[in-house]
Write a structure and sequence with these properties.
Immunoglobulin-like, about 160 residues, 1 helix, single chain, four-stranded antiparallel sheet, 2 domains
C-alpha cells in the first residue's frame, strides 16, 4: 500500500507541466537526500498560464464569487453565464517592455485566463451582478425564491374535550 500526500488545492488548479517537474524533483530529493536537477528548474515560474484564485461564499439569499484579478483592467475581462456555468475570462497584458533593464527574475503572470464555475440550479440568472474594485471581481448570484430558506411556523393543536 502506497500512501501519498493529499493536495486539496489540486482539484481546482489547471494542470501545469512545470508543477509536475517540481513535484518530481521534490520526490527525487526525498529519496536521494539532495538536489537532483540543476537549480534552474527551481527558477521556472510555477505557472506559464494562470487562472485567478476564487472564493465562493454561500449567504442566506445569494452566492458570492470573488476572484483575484490584480493588474487586469475592467475592459480586459468578461463575465458570462451559460446554462449552469459561470465563466470568467480575460487577459492580463504586459504593462510595457523595458529594453534597458535586465531581469534577474520575474514571477509576474501575464496572458489570457479562464475560469469556469458550476452553479447550483437555484440561482436566479436574470439578476446576476458583477462589481470590480481594487483587483477583486465580485459576482453576486441571487438565489431563486424557491431556494431561499423558509421559516415554517409550528402551531399547537388544541384538544377538544
Amino acid at each position: 500500500m502506497v500512501l501519498e500526500r493529499r493536495d486539496p488545492g489540486r482539484a481546482v488548479t489547471p494542470w501545469s507541466p512545470f508543477r509536475e517537474l517540481q513535484e518530481m524533483q521534490r520526490r527525487f530529493d526525498e529519496v536521494f537526500g539532495g538536489p537532483s536537477f540543476p537549480s534552474v528548474w527551481r527558477c521556472l515560474p510555477e505557472e506559464m498560464s494562470w487562472a485567478p484564485a476564487v472564493e465562493i461564499l454561500d449567504k442566506d439569499d445569494k452566492f458570492v464569487v470573488k476572484a483575484e484579478l490584480p493588474g487586469v483592467k475592467q475592459e480586459d475581462m468578461e463575465v458570462s453565464v451559460e446554462g449552469d456555468t459561470l465563466m470568467i475570462k480575460g487577459e492580463k497584458k504586459v504593462e510595457k517592455e523595458t529594453k534597458e533593464e535586465n531581469y534577474y527574475r520575474s514571477e509576474r503572470a501575464y496572458g489570457s485566463f479562464y475560469r469556469s464555475i458550476a452553479l447550483p440550479s437555484t440561482v436566479n440568472a436574470s439578476k446576476i451582478a458583477a462589481d470590480y474594485e481594487d483587483g477583486v471581481l465580485e459576482v453576486t448570484l441571487p438565489k431563486a425564491a424557491e431556494a431561499k430558506p423558509k421559516k415554517i411556523e409550528v402551531k399547537a393543536k388544541k384538544k377538544t374535550s
